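Example S7 (structure tokens).
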């Protein structure tokens, strides 16, 4: 438990610094790419976000912390309640809010007070722009979601679950709060094979999502063990290649610690995970 708390504190401190600085890249302590507002926009477009969606966001909501596009993967519908795990400055929440409309609701949960303050400030701009009051942000850990049982239609998360020191508990919480028949759309980093010890021991790699990642098979097993079904995993290798090409400082450190003749893409991959909570419990006898 002490080790888990140490991990949480390390991540919390790293993301508090990101919230205060505005835009982050892996080398400055954040999960995934970025570094400037322009590079954060370029990264988001490269992984599938629509340019119009990005221009409609409150200023500073996109901090370059994405490794996928869970709002697109989720195929959100009007009137749905969507929950974003590790919502940061509100990036995916604001996009989800527009998709679910005034009869729906988009809720973000984040354990970092500084991120929560940033998101809530951004929410004021979102309400002014859209005329909708359908987003909210709650302080909490994704291992202990401040959300009632069976209350959410869709759960999304973008490059966050790998940061948790207790990932099986996160998946159990996902299953708890989803309504029967509710669905999951997660974008995250996963391992193709074990990372070298030098990389696993890098604090920057932990906060940058690399050292906290688990294998593709482990992601699938955790989702199924939590009681979810129709678990589908899709690799998105282009993300890692993009991070290498833009000379992100963290990825350069990771590459330097890899065995000769290998690349970051041989070890780490962006992964889309979709799943569903069973519509009803199976009847016995």
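Recovered sequence:
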């Amino acid at each position: 438990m002490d080790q888990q708390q140490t991990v949480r504190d390390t991540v919390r401190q790293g993301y508090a610094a990101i919230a205060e600085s505005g835009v982050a890249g892996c080398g400055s302590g954040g999960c995934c790419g970025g570094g400037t507002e322009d590079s954060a926009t370029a990264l988001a477009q490269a992984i599938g976000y629509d340019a119009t969606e990005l221009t409609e966001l409150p200023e500073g909501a996109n901090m370059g912390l994405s490794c996928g596009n869970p709002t697109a993967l989720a195929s959100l519908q009007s009137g749905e309640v969507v929950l974003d795990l590790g919502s940061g400055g509100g990036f995916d929440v604001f996009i989800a809010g527009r998709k679910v409309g005034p009869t729906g609701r988009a809720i973000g949960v984040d354990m970092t007070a500084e991120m929560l303050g940033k998101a809530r400030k951004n929410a004021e701009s979102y309400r002014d722009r859209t005329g909708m009051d359908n987003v909210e942000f709650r302080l909490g850990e994704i291992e202990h979601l401040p959300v009632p049982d069976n209350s959410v239609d869709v759960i999304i998360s973008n490059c966050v679950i790998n940061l948790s020191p207790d990932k099986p508990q996160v998946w159990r919480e996902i299953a708890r709060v989803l309504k029967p028949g509710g669905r999951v759309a997660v974008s995250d980093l996963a391992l193709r094979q074990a990372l070298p010890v030098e990389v696993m021991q890098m604090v920057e790699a932990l906060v940058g999502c690399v050292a906290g990642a688990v294998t593709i098979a482990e992601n699938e097993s955790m989702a199924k063990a939590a009681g979810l079904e129709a678990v589908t995993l899709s690799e998105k290798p282009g993300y890692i290649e993009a991070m290498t090409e833009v000379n992100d400082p963290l990825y350069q450190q990771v590459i330097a610690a890899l065995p000769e003749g290998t690349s970051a893409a041989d070890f780490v991959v962006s992964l889309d995970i979709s799943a569903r909570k069973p519509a009803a419990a199976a009847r016995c006898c």
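Notes on this example. The first strand starts at residue 81 and ends at 85.
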